[in-house]
Specification:
The chain is α+β, with helices and mostly antiparallel strands. The chain has 2 domains: about 60 residues, Arc Repressor Mutant, subunit A (Orthogonal Bundle), CATH 1.10.10; about 35 residues. Helix content is about 35%, strand content about 15%. The protein contains 4 helices and 4 strands, in the order ββαααββα. It has a two-stranded antiparallel sheet with strand order 1-2. A two-stranded antiparallel sheet has the order 3-4. The protein starts with a strand and ends with a helix.
């Protein structure tokens, strides 16, 4: 099962491929834990985890390469016509001076510009929500 590399002192253990396969097969059994299998064979669980990683890497190398990104053709439809939105008219300003909300939205190649008085901010928000849906 194991062979000591240096005969004088225990430097590093080397395990046969059959022994590794046996241990890894036991870890795949239902209800088995890697730690339990490792300890039953006198191994540290980290060693068995390393063997599992190495086995997974070998399997991944054997599989044909799958690209991480596959480009898909997207048909772009851009309309240059103006779109009329149903808008609730804003109330007239009380004073002669009016601060305005100016919004410019660009979507799908179309630009929508809106100017709203600050006093009608709620209606502006509603129109913007409908536009961005």
């Amino acid at each position: 099962m194991e062979r000591l590399i240096d005969g004088e002192r225990r430097l590093r253990r080397e395990y046969s491929a059959d022994f590794k396969a046996l241990v890894l097969r036991q870890t795949r059994e239902r209800g088995a834990s890697v730690s339990g299998v490792a300890l039953s064979h006198g191994l540290h669980p980290n060693m068995v985890h390393r063997w599992l990683r190495e086995q997974r890497l070998l399997r991944e190398k054997a599989l044909p390469g799958t690209p991480a990104f596959v480009p898909l053709p997207v048909q772009s439809v851009v309309s240059q016509e103006r779109v009329a939105l149903p808008v609730t008219p804003a109330p007239a300003p009380v004073s002669g001076i009016c601060e305005a909300i100016h919004i410019e939205v660009q979507r799908h190649g179309t630009t929508v510009t809106m100017d709203w008085p600050v006093t009608a901010a709620a209606q502006c928000a509603q129109a913007l929500r409908e536009l961005l849906q």
